[in-house]
């Protein structure tokens, strides 16, 4: 597999294709582990887990684990169980999130809780968390276990913080960034750092990989938040406008509220503060967010984080793995449609 690191891989700029091509063999192993470990004699568990896990997601977080391990010089397959654990943690959080948010779609499919019910979705999420921790222990690295276990706690803190500040029209940009850093970017950071650790990376390499993952995760979430108002259901894998309908105070919304001022204060208070919405309100909110440049400003900030992610790779070896990770950062901010 190491030979792939020096192979000439076709990788369009701003694409995940190069990374997927490099990691094909590794991800085949990761997917085999995922398939085996989500099995259970309780039939609803594999059925519900498969509904989401095999719904066409790009597996970006386990890809990060594999890529950072290979970039750090890994020559064995010790990173594969950690990568599978990362995917289970991510899937578990999605199952829980969709119940909390009453989401209708996930990855373009009907949300699992609408098919099997909220209790089953939550409990299968718990099952996947348990499987993730089993895999971490089996991977044999206490440091990687510590990284991913702490990440699971931080993600939960981020979700609770978001829940307690839901519908808050006065949410500051700093608190918003704190929320997405915890609930989204932390798992990107942990996935990247754990991969480096599995390869026996130096402390400097670990820090570089963590910085890359953290900034990449922030860029991804910012773009997702902007696309909720300036994208399509196909690009999002969920219904466009879901954040607005759920009353989530994301950055595009917060910027639009600040930029429209008193003129639209009553509209925002009704639709977000009290969540009293009509069928036409999303169209109006989208118009205000685009007209004030709030979506574009959010994307500009995402670009800044993507550049910081690429800058974190400067001291690593210049090979195909690094180039693919740089392209992944560009891809994160190119998902406009």
What does this protein structure show overall?
With about 325 residues, the protein is mainly α. The chain has helices at about 15-20, 25-35, 45-55, 60-70, 80-100, 110-115, 120-140, 140-165, 175-200, 205-230, 235, 240-245, 250-260, 265-275, 280-290, 295-310, 320-330; strands at about 105, 110. The protein has a single domain, classed as Orthogonal Bundle (Farnesyl Diphosphate Synthase). Helix content is about 70%, strand content about 0%. Strand 1 (about 105) and strand 2 (about 110) form a beta hairpin. Helix 2 (about 25-35) crosses helix 5, helix 9 crosses helix 10 (about 205-230) and helix 10 (about 205-230) runs antiparallel to helix 16 (about 295-310). The chain is globular, with a radius of gyration of 20 Å. The model is unreliable at about 1-15 (pLDDT under 50).
What's the quick description here?
The protein has helices spanning 17-22, 24-37, 44-53, 60-71, 79-101, 112-116, 118-139, 142-164, 173-198, 203-230, 233-236, 242-245, 251-260, 265-273, 281-291, 294-311, 320-332, and strands at residues 105-106, 109-110. It has 337 residues and is mainly alpha-helical.
């Amino acid at each position: 597999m190491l030979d792939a690191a020096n192979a000439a891989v076709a990788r369009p700029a701003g694409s995940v294709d190069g990374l997927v091509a490099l990691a094909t063999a590794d991800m085949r192993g990761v997917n085999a582990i995922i398939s085996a470990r989500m099995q259970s004699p309780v039939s609803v568990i594999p059925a519900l887990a498969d509904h989401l896990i095999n719904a066409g997601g790009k597996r970006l977080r386990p890809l990060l684990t594999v890529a950072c391990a290979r970039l750090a010089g890994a020559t064995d397959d010790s990173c594969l169980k950690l990568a599978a654990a990362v995917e289970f943690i991510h899937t578990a959080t999605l199952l829980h999130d969709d119940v909390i948010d009453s989401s209708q779609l996930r990855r373009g499919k009907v949300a699992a809780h609408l098919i099997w019910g909220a209790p089953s979705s939550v409990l299968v999420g718990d099952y996947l968390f348990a499987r993730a921790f089993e895999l971490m222990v089996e991977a044999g690295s206490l440091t990687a276990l510590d990284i991913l276990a702490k990440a699971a706690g931080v993600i939960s803190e981020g979700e609770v913080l978001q829940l307690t500040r839901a519908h808050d029209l006065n949410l500051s940009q700093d608190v918003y960034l704190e929320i997405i850093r915890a609930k989204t970017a932390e798992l990107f950071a942990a996935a990247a750092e754990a991969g480096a650790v599995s390869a026996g990376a130096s402390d400097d390499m670990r820090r570089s990989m963590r910085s890359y993952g953290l900034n990449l995760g922030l860029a991804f979430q910012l773009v997702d938040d902007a696309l909720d108002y300036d994208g399509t259901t196909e690009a999002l894998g969920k219904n466009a406008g879901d954040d607005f309908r759920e009353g989530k105070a994301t950055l595009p919304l917060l910027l639009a509220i600040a930029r429209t001022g008193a003129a639209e204060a009553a509209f925002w208070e009704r639709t977000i503060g009290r969540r009293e919405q009509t069928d036409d309100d999303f169209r109006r909110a989208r118009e205000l967010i685009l007209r004030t440049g709030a979506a574009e400003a959010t994307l500009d900030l995402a670009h800044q984080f993507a550049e910081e992610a690429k800058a974190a790779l400067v001291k690593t070896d210049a090979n195909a793995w690094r180039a693919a990770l740089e392209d992944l950062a560009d891809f994160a901010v190119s998902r406009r449609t």
